[in-house]
Design a protein that fits this description.
Number of helices: 24
Strand content: 5-15%
Number of strands: 8
Mean pLDDT: 79
Helix content: 55-70%
Distance between the termini: 54 Å
Largest sheet: 5 strands, antiparallel
Strand order of the largest sheet: 1-5-2-3-4
Structural class: alpha+beta
Length: 536
């Protein structure tokens, strides 16, 4: 495993390569589950995380996440305070030059720009963002060391239960189901949870099946009467959210390893006390400031990002007016996969429909529809193949729209009111057609053809939308044939008609259409390849 630069522990007998350290991959033991395990075992130590060029380190005290550092510039304190509009660039220029976030923290408090509690809260939120970022990594490796810990004065109020719960809610069942070893696993309710999490109805229903005794999954499935996939997802959500305790499962830390760590902790504390008595300045803790400097990329003039805060009204307006999946997520079409995932999880956390169950019916419906659009956008863009196909469709759609506008404005360079209405209807219908919503695409494309009956593309795409309805296929062919008459040299329209004929097993007629087209445009390679395929 690629090691991070570390400071040297004071206790020379305890090194980073000691037998208590534990390593693995996210494939075998996912990051979210590791956080829960460390919390339930109340472990002290550090968790080093790596994926490609990305690096992060998290520090734990008695199972609670208390601090963290990351290599990413956006996870530096100055960047975060500027993004949240807590401080301005002018404020930062007033401060003395700082080499790390902890020096910056002290300098901000000393200058009276923010109180210590305010800065500590900002650091806690920054650590939570680091966790959310790591949750978006598609893969990675981890290394836990129980002997590398944060200093006592670097303990921050980091809360991650809500982020883990929302993360679990967003996971598809295909990812969650393999995480269960068997239906014989047991879960038990924690009665000390006080994280204020609002549960969904089915999650609360599952939770009410628990008392103070452990219960097997197979018993609960029979008792609840819920579909198995839905029940297991609710169980996984309640576990990651810190509401249930999981027993007898395929954990990363075995019982023997946990016992060894606990025994070593007692020995280390006793030896540290002896050393402290002999040398008062000695410490058994690691200073994370040097680790932060080692991980972080220096950025003397960090770019101030736009605020990530967005109101419900602005969010709904943005999604409802979005023309692409990138618009839905508020991203640039060149956004990295990590940005796509981060945007999705942030929106899921802020605008999940369950958070607005007390709103009026209209608002609830808008929120539900918007979130469905967000999920579709994320599912399409998170994977390379589907994103590439989508980007291709968007490019082709843009090309088509530009051609339509050129055709509509061909006479005198102006578009009359009917042509304008036709163009608007065509754009809506084409979007629906690209999303494979054929039923709703038909009336818009039909309206476009009505307003501009001489527009070949309108007629062709109207026919294509009709072709998905078996009862309308005769009319669909008529529209495509009319489009060919209006623009006989247009390869897009000719190929659309040929593909329609092939799909309906009218192969001779398709061959004839392609031959006639090649007589007009002999150098069209796409038509020639399709003709050769038919002849073959």
């Amino acid at each position: 495993m690629d090691r991070f630069p570390t400071t040297r522990p004071v206790l020379s007998s305890m090194t980073a390569q000691n037998p208590l350290d534990h390593s693995g991959t996210f494939v075998e033991y996912p990051f979210a589950e590791l956080l829960v395990e460390i919390g339930e075992a109340k472990l002290d130590g550090s968790l080093r995380l790596s994926s490609g060029e990305k690096r992060s380190i998290l520090y734990f005290k008695e199972g609670s996440l208390v601090y963290g550092v990351s290599k990413s510039p956006e996870h530096r304190l100055q960047y975060a305070l500027a993004a949240a509009k807590k401080l301005t660039q002018g404020d930062f220029r007033q401060l003395t030059k700082c080499t790390n976030d902890l020096e910056l923290r002290a300098s901000i408090v000393a200058a009276g720009l923010m109180s210590k509690d305010e800065v500590d809260e900002a650091i806690a939120k920054l650590v939570e963002k680091i966790v959310i970022d790591v949750l978006t990594w598609p893969d990675g490796t981890w290394h836990f060391s129980p002997l590398v810990r944060s200093r006592e004065d670097l303990i921050f109020p980091v809360k991650i239960e809500g982020a883990l719960l929302e993360y679990a809610r967003c996971l598809p069942s295909s990812v969650i189901l393999p995480r269960f070893k068997s239906l014989g696993e047991k879960f038990q309710r924690k009665f000390d949870e006080s994280n204020g999490i609002v549960l969904q109805k089915h999650e609360d229903f599952v939770l009410q099946r628990f008392d103070d005794q452990p219960r097997k999954i197979q018993e609960l499935i029979l008792e609840c009467g819920l579909p198995e996939n839905g029940f297991l997802q609710a169980l996984y959500v309640l576990w990651l959210g810190g509401i249930l305790r999981r027993l007898d499962w395929n954990s990363a830390f075995s019982t023997n390893r946990l016992a060894a760590i606990q025994n070593a902790r007692v020995a280390v504390v006793r030896k540290a006390q002896t050393l402290a008595a002999e040398a008062p300045r000695s410490t058994a803790k690691t200073d994370p400031t040097s680790e932060a400097d080692a991980l972080a990329t220096p950025d003397p003039q960090p770019v101030v990002p736009e605020t990530i805060e967005i109101s419900l009204t602005d969010y709904l307006t943005r999604v409802e007016e979005a023309k692409t999946h990138y618009d839905v997520l508020g991203l640039n079409p060149k956004a990295a996969v990590a940005e796509i995932k981060a945007s999705y999880f942030s929106l899921a956390k802020l605008f999940h429909p369950d958070r607005y169950h007390r709103e009026d019916a209209v608002t609830q419906q808008r929120v539900q529809t918007a979130f469905s659009s967000v999920q579709v956008a994320y599912d399409t863009l998170k994977a390379g193949d589907s994103r590439e196909n989508y980007d291709y469709k968007v490019r082709k759609e843009l090309e088509i729209k530009e051609k339509v506008k050129a055709q509509s404005a061909a006479t005198g360079g102006t578009i009359d009111q009917k042509a304008e209405q036709g163009l608007e209807s065509f754009e809506i219908g084409l979007n629906l057609l690209m999303e494979e919503d054929y039923e709703h695409a038909v009336p818009f494309l039909g309206r476009a053809a009505h307003y501009s009956p001489d527009n070949a593309l309108y007629r062709a795409y109207f026919g294509k939308a009709l072709s998905y309805d078996e009862k309308q296929r005769h009319k669909a062919e008529g529209e495509m044939q009319m489009a060919v008459k209006l623009d006989p040299r247009n390869p897009k329209i000719r190929m659309m008609l040929a593909e329609f004929l092939i799909e309906n097993n009218l192969l001779k007629r398709a061959e004839g259409e392609l031959r006639r087209f090649l007589e007009l445009v002999p150098d069209n390679q796409e038509a020639r390849r399709l003709l050769e395929k038919l002849q073959g």
